[in-house]
Amino acid sequence: MVLKYYYDLISEPSRALYILLKINKIPFKKHPVNLLKFENLTDEFKTKLNRFQKVPFIHDNDFILTESIAIVRYLSREYGIKDSLYPQDSKHQALVDEYLEWQHHNTRLLIALYTRHKLFKPLLTGDEPDLNLVSKYKRGVVKTMDKIENLWLRDQKFICGNILTVADIFAACEIEQPRMTGFDPTKGRPKLETWMNEVRKELDPVYSEAHLVLNELAANNEKAKL
Amino acid sequence: MGLKLFYHPLSQPSRSLYIFLKYNNIPFEARVVDLKEGEHLTQEFKEKFNRFQKVPFIHDDNFVLSESIAIIRYLASKYEIKDNLYPSNFKQRALIDEYLEWQHHNTRQHFAMFTQHLWFIPLRTGTPADQKEVEKYEKALQETLDKIENLWLGNNSYLCGHKISVADLFAACEIEEPRLGGYDPTKGRPKIKEWLERVRTELNPAYAEAHAALNEVASLHKI
Description:
The complex is a heterodimer of chains A (about 230) and B (about 220).
Chain A (H helix, E strand, L loop, with lengths): L2 E5 L4 H12 L4 E5 L10 H7 L7 E4 L2 E4 L1 H11 L11 H13 L4 H19 L5 H23 L12 H11 L13 H14 L2 H5 L1 H14 L1
Parallel strand pairs in A: 1-2
Antiparallel strand pairs in A: 1-3, 3-4
Chain B lengths: L2 E5 L4 H12 L5 E4 L10 H6 L8 E4 L2 E4 L1 H11 L11 H13 L4 H19 L5 H23 L12 H11 L13 H14 L2 H5 L1 H9 L3
Parallel strand pairs in B: 1-2
Antiparallel strand pairs in B: 1-3, 3-4
């Protein structure tokens, strides 16, 4: 049976894996899960599909796996991923892993907290956003962008060197996210902006396809401001 | 030259790596970084040792690597290790990776935040702990323990099945941490208590050695 992919393109790691599957031409069956309709929170979902009730995850026959980074590694061993994206050589792979682990408490955490408090929580509860939390996490996002520029990109073309890797895919999918709230973290940062455009260019048309929903929401947000 | 581990005994992932190296008989030089004196915060440290200015990290000759999970994976690819700790079988390894990635925003985050507010911040600032913050993080810690019991352990002896793996090692080193502030996370949780005992026994004497400094601080709370 073909690999089943459960995802919501509104989730950053869901987009990263979607792009990874497509550009490596790994055949998969799409199983979109609508997080904003809480489709993941039913008991049936928990018992039948995934006990953690989060996306993304895969079913490979009866093997269920969650956690996007764990899935990258599984796909690279079981299906094969372009060596430049996730190198087999242990030192090169370790340096890509270094970013994939680092991002959890940096790019991933801060952007998720910022968008949760600025957009998703108010949207789902109808409450006004907590402005203290919003500005606290926005400062966190700004600091993280400093780190991406100064500790990762430095004078390189990409996060882990001069070749695009899965680290760039995961980083870019995160950094796109706050655009839904009208905040573009690459603005005023020519280095980051150049990198982002390179990543988009290298991964298109798949990249744009994965970001279609996000781009629509970002455009609506811009319109609302006019 | 050779492999050098830069670590601190009160850092959870530092202890995990220390135990992993000892348990697998991997030769290494242990180098404590004086976090209390801010050794890692100097410009010299940043340029010479590690641009992220955090522990643990390794120098393997000229190769510098940070992030404990990335390091474990690198060591497992380079050295002979006990296979059940991080199996070469794809699917088994994937299920251990699943825990190693899951823990970042669960065990790691909540145990670290709780211990910070209960113990580190009061110690550093000389002011009593902010009870509201402590209670908030205690709730998150207890929810994480529920998940460890129900979503991970289930009816198994270990987190990822019936054999000990690096998932148990990382989890145990986190769960020990709040004892620094006199808080025992296994209280009222016989299942976690038994599991933690199994992990300690399996990984001793390296486990006890790595936790000597923590145990000393913890013992002060019993007086």
